[in-house]
What does this fold into?
Amino acid sequence: MAGGIGGARFLRGLRAALRADEPTASITVIGNTGDDITLFGLRVCPDLDTVMYTLGEGIDEQQGWGRAKESFAVKDELASYGAQPQWFGLGDRDIATHILRTQWLAEGVPLSEVTARLCERWRPGVRLLPMSDDKVETHVVIDDGASGGRRLIHFQEWWVRLHAQAPALEITAVGAATATPAPGVVEAIADADVVLLPPSNPIVSIGTILAVPGIRQALVATSAPVVGVSPIIGGAPVRGMADACLTARGVETSAAAVGALYGPSLIDGWLVDTVDAGAAVDGVEVRSRPLLMTDVEATADIARAALALAAEVRA
Amino acid sequence: MAGGIGGARFLRGLRAALRADEPTASITVIGNTGDDITLFGLRVCPDLDTVMYTLGEGIDEQQGWGRAKESFAVKDELASYGAQPQWFGLGDRDIATHILRTQWLAEGVPLSEVTARLCERWRPGVRLLPMSDDKVETHVVIDDGASGGRRLIHFQEWWVRLHAQAPALEITAVGAATATPAPGVVEAIADADVVLLPPSNPIVSIGTILAVPGIRQALVATSAPVVGVSPIIGGAPVRGMADACLTARGVETSAAAVGALYGPSLIDGWLVDTVDAGAAVDGVEVRSRPLLMTDVEATADIARAALALAAEVRA
It folds into this structure.
């Protein structure tokens, strides 16, 4: 299961580790689609694309999302028309992906098949499944300072435009309750040898995937060991603004608290950073090691440690 | 009434002439939408955009269509995905227009209102109306050499991909019979002081506009003088491949034949080039002068001659 940047980078390490150590192994990724948004009529799936571009060598390495060597002619033109919103940085290369996706969705092709078609070009070396073919969009209730009222905005507006600075009173995955897992999702969890939760945002990435009825249950039911990698190191997110999401849910920003949020019903093992070596989670095996994904090789070693912990808890 | 390049250039001259000679005059353009096509789910209106970009100083002067200083990142990306068709040159700046148009059309905004919104940016100095808010698409029946059969293709495929080289057995405006004129079209013709037919393609531009029920009738009924400018000089189109269209309809490629095609029920005056000074059209006043639209000033003089002929036939 994976969100965007953190998940994609972890997957690149995992893929490298398996290619070296276990070349017959295959990876199925269940991607978060709660960040999806329709902009100018185009359907944008930021997390699926980040995984696809990262594993397909098309990502902007520096920023971690979007395409390398990107240009912004379309965005500039849309701004010249005065079209809103202008706070989302849609690049020209990236837009081609959204145009095709939107065209296919309009033709009735489900998102899982659309994603498979896009991956025919990118060959990410994993099977990338959206968590659901149904539309699920994370929305955030913020305190609207000006009017003193509560305002419901799309997650992307909160994250990208407001940089998660406006305290979230509530984070909710609109549409999740009636969504069904995409074809292959429940089966992948049931048939897996190991299930890994990468250091993605536990609320709006992993949490949203788990909010699709059937997925949490599949995770609880699978005979495979489930191991998570903490996205929190020394009380702060490695990257991104997961703390703002955790706070909104009343969860402390600590490796131990996130481990406890998943808890023993979901995970068997929890990998934390060396600085969090003291963290304990009731009913869960906790191990510590350096968790900074500085490069692919370092990340592959983190993935190896997660797989080793899985082997340990399976035994 | 106007098609693409020829119509747009004539309009630029007409606008210059009126600004100088009659600054309170206003121009309403009835644009051809039969060339419209949906590519990758985006609705493209080549003739409306050519008029809008030309009068709005955004046109690629050299090629006469598309945006100046254009880039093609999106097109290249779509090709990398293997998406078809690849024979239509959608530029990045141009695509922004199509994205907005498609978004608004999907929201239920009629094309005439979409066009007005786009013109808020371009300020073309004319009121630009599509001939109809209904979808009309010109299709061409060609002889499919390979299989010996007849094949129906979109006008753009014939024009852009095949360069009108495959003989057209039939040219038909699909949807025209049941289309209705866009709001303001019939009124503009009825209330006009002068109606001009610029040197646009008489079959697939002016002809398609006239194929919308009500427009030809409005032209016949208006009390305004109607004057056309020949798109044919010395037996050849000034630009484009109008000869291939005329041949498909059994009309000779000559200034006289096109004048007769419109005929006295539609036009009162017909302006031809000096080389066609001998052309006569029954029941229509014919005048000759140089018709090459070499620059805006030369084109303004052509427009002045058309207006003078209109004044003459009115008297």
